Predict the 3D structure of the following.
Amino acid sequence: MRRATPSSCIVTLDLDGATFPYRAGQVASLSPEGDGDRVPYSIASAPEETATDSTLQFLIKFDSSGKWGDHFEPLRRGLHVSVRGPSGSFVFPPAPTERRFLFIAGGTGIAPLRSMIKHAVLTQRPGQIALLYSARTPHDFAYLPELRRMVRRGELQLTMTATRELSARWRGARGRIAAAQLAPLVESPETLCFVCGPASMVSDVPPMLQELGIDRERIRLEDW
């Protein structure tokens, strides 16, 4: 377990050598072993990472008492977790014809997009990758050190916007995602776009992309 933001952790599950085939962007349902209830979470690791180290990674939100899902007791090292899946059609395609990829994340919606971005990088997918990442405060951006390393290596173009509780030191964009922030990232109508985040963002962003010339068929939305 590794703290990602004040209200979420990056949780790594050891598969103990078992295989778990999935596609980048898919979902697995989790519960503490023995509990019949399950909660779906996007898999944040890339399939190539899982194949290498036999682990699955998730970005899990918790409440002030540390509970997660609907009612599960706080996570701890050594806890046995039941995993069912994968499922979901919100995935990175096996052979996209596009050479520009735009990922638009809100809050913990970064999880499946992180899987897709890492998959594209690890498989050396030709093209350019951009990420527009929105969060409430500068403290609510998960995976930020990793994303910045990818920027330094030339693997990713990163734009961030924070919507509230901003300090004078914040140097990113401010406010909710708007067409003005998307426009510089849409250099070609042949850009494949992936959107994942709060329902309002998933509703608002596609019309903006279409106004910028992106065909609806090239806009993929989170769909469990």
Observations:
- The chain has a mean pLDDT of 92.
- The chain has five helices and twelve strands.
- The two ends are 25 Å apart (CA to CA).
- The helical segments are 47-53, 110-122, 144-152, 179-182, 199-211.
